[in-house]
Design goal:
Helix 2 runs parallel beside helix 3 and helix 3 packs parallel to helix 4. This protein is 50% helix and 19% strand. The longest helix is centred in the C-terminal third of the chain and has 21 residues. It has a five-stranded parallel β-sheet with strand order 2-1-3-4-5, with helices on both faces. The radius of gyration is 13 Å and the shape is globular. By secondary structure, it is an alpha/beta fold.
Amino acid sequence: MKIAIVEQDELLSDLVSFRLELLGHDVAVWSTAQNMLAKLDEANLDVLIVDTHQADMQGWEAIQKVRHTYSGEQLPILAFSIDTDLGLVEQAYKAGANDYLIIPFDPAVLQSKIEALLMLRHRLVGAK
């Protein structure tokens, strides 16, 4: 499955992509939300992971922009952040995130959230 991570912190993006690659996924990393938005249509993703803190725009804004084109079933989004503020979590869900993950995280929790989002995505594909 193809998963993209939008994360400006290189160490964190390397850690997440390494874990996802160990699980057999093809992973792309974009360091800015603008970069993600420019490449999204050609990427043919199964899941998008977006950090809520981006240098060029808020993560929830990036999620909203994605939702103008893709539904939650067409492209499931996992928002993640080091910030535990419930207001930020709520903002991410309102913008269109399917799920949320607080950093630091247990790799098994990341795996289970990705598996659930992939099932959501492939239910839509299988229904066509």
